[in-house]
Amino acid sequence: MTDHLSWETLNDLVDGVLDVNAAEAASRHARGCVTCGAALDELRATVATARALPGTVPPPDELWGDIRSTIEAGKVAYLPPRTAAPRGWWITPGRLAAAAVVLVALTTTLTGIVMSTRTGPRNGTVSLTTVAWQSSERAFQASVVELREQLDGMQGQLAPATVAKVERALATIDLAIAEAREALLRDPANAALTELLASNYRQKIGLLRRMTQLAS
Amino acid sequence: MSEPQATGDDLSSLVTSATRGDVQAFEQLYARTAGRVFAICLRMTGDRQRARELAHDAFVRAWERLGTFRGDSAFETWLHRLTVNVVLTAARGERRRNARLVSSDDADDASSLAAFGKPGPDVATRVDLERAIAALPPRARQVFVLHDVEGFRHEEIADRLDLRPGSVRAQLHRARQLIMRMLSR
Question: Are the C-beta atoms of residues B179 and B133 closer than 8 Å to each other?
C-alpha cells in the first residue's frame, strides 16, 4: 500500500475522536498494512504506558517541614485562611472605588507608622527568616498573578472610571509593598515589617478579589 | 513514601479541622496527597528542584484556600487542579527556562525515577518513558502529561493553557512522536 495513515489519523484513532466511519476505515487499513499496523501498535503501547504510570512520586523528605514553616510564619505574617465571601449585594462599582480610597489611606498611614517605629520581633511570635518571608511572598505573588489573569479575561465588564480608581489604589499599595520589602531586606527578622508586607499583600489581593467578583 | 489510604469521610473531617487552623490535620492531608501533588509537579516541570518549590507553593496555597473548598468535588480533585494551576501560572512566568529532569549524571533523580513503580518487568520501560517526558519541550510536555497521564480532555487543556483545541492536539501528537523517537533509540 502506498497511502499510509497520517500521524494525525493514527493519534485520533487511538484517542477515539474519529467518527465511526473514519475509525472503521482507518482500523481496516491498519489491519492490512504492516507499516501502519506497527505504528498503531507502538503508539497504543506508548499511550497505555503513560496512562499506567504510577500516580505518586515520593516527595523530598524535608518538604513538609518547609511547608509547615511557611504556614507557621503565615500565622504571624498573614491572616488565617478565610472562607471566601460570596459576591455580596453591597459590592457596587461606587463602593468598590470608595473602598479602594480608604484602603490607600490605611496602607499609607500604616506603612508610615511602622517604617518610623521599626519595632523588633514581638515576644511569642515566630522568628521569621528571610527565606520564610520570601517564601510567603511568593505565595502572595502567585495569588496576585492568578487574580490578575482572571481580571484580564474580564476586561470591559467594569466601568473605566472604576477601573482607573482601583488601578491607582493598586499602584499605591504596590509602592507600600516595595517599601516594606526593601526594609525587610535590610532587617529580615523584623516581625512588624513582615506583618506590614503581608498586610499590604492582603489588601492588594482583597481588592483584586472584589474586582473579580464585581466583574463576574 | 506510601500514602495512607483515606476514605472521603476521613479527608472531609481533616479538611474541616485544617480549615479551622489545625496544622496537624493539614499535615495528615499532606501525608495522604503529597506523592500525587509532587508527581504532577515533577512531570509537568521536568525539574526536581522546581517541582519541590511548586509542590511547596501548592500546599501553602491549598492551606490559604481551604475555606474556598466547597466539597462539590473530592478534595483530591480540588487539590490536583489547584496544583496544575500553580504549575501553569508559574510556567507562564518562566517560559524561557530550560529545565530538564534527568541528566545522565544525575544519580539522585535517577534513583527517584526508579522509585516510581513497584519492582517488576516494566520498571525499565516506565523509567525510560519518564526520562523521555522530562526531555520534551515545555509546552509539549505539559500537554502530554495533562492528557495522557492525568486524563484531562483536549478542551480542558486548551482552556488552562490558553490554546486552541487544535493546537493542543498538534502539541499532543508532536509530544508522542518525540517520545516514541526517544524510546526507540
Answer: yes
Q: Is residue A2 part of a domain?
A: no
The pLDDT of B5-10, averaged and rounded, is 62
Q: Tell me the residue range of the domain where A81 lies.
A: 63-215
Assess if residue A97 is contained within a domain: yes
Among A171, A166, A178, CA closest to A209: A166
- Burial class from Cβ neighbours inside 10 Å (0-12, 13-18, 19+) for residue A94 reads exposed
- Chain A: residue nearest B66 by CA? A81
Give the C-alpha separation, B100 to B96, whole Å: 12
Instruction: Determine the residue among A5, A56, A64, A83 to mutate to test chain B binding: the one whose Cβ has the most chain B Cβ atoms within 10 Å.
Output: A56
Of B17 and A143, the one with more pLDDT = B17
Spatial distance between the Cα atoms of A48 and A50, rounded to a whole number of angstroms: 5
Give the distance from CA B36 to its chain's centroid. Answer: 7
Contact B26 A70 (CB under 8 A): no
ipTM of the modeled complex: 0.77
In a domain, residue B83? The reply is: yes
B80, closest residue in chain A (CA to CA): A55
| Residue B174 CA neighbour count, 13 Å, CB half | 15
Least confident of A83-92, B103-112, B123-132, B153-162: B103-112
The model carries a pTM of 0.58
Residue B95 confidence (pLDDT): 55
For residue B93, give the CATH number of its domain: 1.10.1740.10
Same domain, A87 and A179: yes
